[in-house]
Each structure stands twice: as C-alpha cells, then as structure tokens.
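Morning - magnesium ion inputs below, output right after.
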Amino acid sequence: MKFVSWGDTANLAVRDNDGVLRDLSKSGRPATLQALIEAGPEALAKVRRLDLKSLPCLDASAKLTAPLPKPRRNIFCVGKNYREHAREFGTSGFDGGAVGGDEIPDAPIIFSKATTSVIGPGDAIPSANDPFNSVDYEGELAIVIGTGGRAIAPEAALGHVFGYTIVNDVTSRDAQKKHQQWLLGKGIDGFCPMGPALVTADEMPDLSVVRLTTIVNGEQRQNALLADLIFDVPTLIATISRYITLSPGDIIATGTPAGVGLGFKPPKFLKPGDRVAVRIDPIGTLENPVS
Ligand code: MG
C-alpha cells in the first residue's frame, strides 16, 4: 500500500487501486502513520481489508507532510554507502576523516539527523540555516521500521521493515567538516525533506532493480541503482540493532550515490531559488525548493 500524511496533525491517507488518495483519518483506524505502525501487523491487515472506495477522497487542497513528520527520535543515517560517492567525498577535501581519500568503509558509518530537521514535500529548504553557504543535497532511500527488535539477524531483517520512503540528507558541507562529527552539519533545522509517500515493503520491487535519481533545476545529478549499496538493507538493520534497540517508526536513511554538489569542481552548492527533486519509483518524487 502507498500512504501519505497530510495536514497539521499528519492525518493518514492511502492510495486506492485507481491512484486516488483516500482519507483514513475518520475510518476508525489509526489516524497517523506512526500510530498505524505502532499498532502492529494486524492493524495494517485491517486497513488492507477496507473497501477503500467507500472512504472520502482526500481534498485536493490537502497539504502533504512528511510521512513521519515528527519521528520519535533522530533519523539514523549511513555515510559513504555507495562506492563512487565514497571516492567523491573522500577526495573532495570536505571529509575530515579521510586518509587516502578513496577508502571504502569496512563497516557502516552511522550518524543521525535531529527530528527537527524534517520537512515535507514542497517545503522550502532554509539555506540560510547554514552559516557557511555550503548547502548540498543527498538523495536517499529511507527504511521505516515496523516491528522493533534488538540484535536482529540479517536473514530476519526484511521482516522488520514496514516500508520505504525518500529522504534528502541535506548537508552543510563546511559545518560537516568543521565539527568532524556529522550531527551538526546534517541535523540542521529544515535539512531533512522526507516523502512524498511511504510504500509498504510488500509493494516495493526487489531493491536491486530500483533506481534513484536526483534532479537539480532540471539537471540530472544523481542516477544509481540501489544494487550499488555497499551495505544493503539487511546489513544496516543488523548493524544498528546490534547496539541500539530498533522501535516501530524508526527511520534509516541508507546513504547517497555519487553526484552530490561537492563532487563538482568548483562545488555546485544549493542556493535560494533552486529546486531539488529526488525520485525513486514507486515511492514517487520528493521535490523541494530552496529558500
Ligand atoms: Mg547522506
């Protein structure tokens, strides 16, 4: 199923077979995506059994939000998880931890983005929040955890995935370098566009054939298959849950492929008036202007 969240209280809507968004918020089912995930697999099964066409259409004027606009805790993120991007970043001069510059990490690099960084589809990325004018985009597939757990085995990991969405891991490159740890440079208010929808795990194709593209002002900058991930979805879930108990609604952004702004000489950083669109089918296109 494909869910979107909308309005000030992030009400839930679902897409029917004809592509029409139906408002679930008055159906007696969990009113938000976070509540639906926390209610467990049977709650999702009940939504599947609903006659969606009997539900009201979502008003065309409804403002979509991030699928999970107020995550219960920081968004887990993965650094340097595509080979070409690891080289691009390591040799850019912005990677404070680089040694030779072209190293492929031998274990996942995990950091997080603050919950206050989340904005929705169409919301403006507030570039002035980066004091260094070094705002960069990173299109990424994001995992949303369903059933939580600790020390999840890789073979069991996909059973813990509720669904997938898109995240733009917007970054202040100079803050990322200045503070070495990436929390400040990547956790800036408004620097985590998310959406436009969540697709449940059963409706995503095999991830190895799924493509991610990022378009800035009509110019394609990123174009990669998710098969190019160094550490795949099961490995990421197993790695994080070895240390930290995962909970329903946790979000894991899986890393970005080559083609970010710092990879160009000179870097192509974002500026007010730009538009960034990250596309992953069948989730859709996450498009945001820069203010
Ligand atoms: Mg990233």
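Note: The first strand starts at residue 2 and ends at 6.

O.
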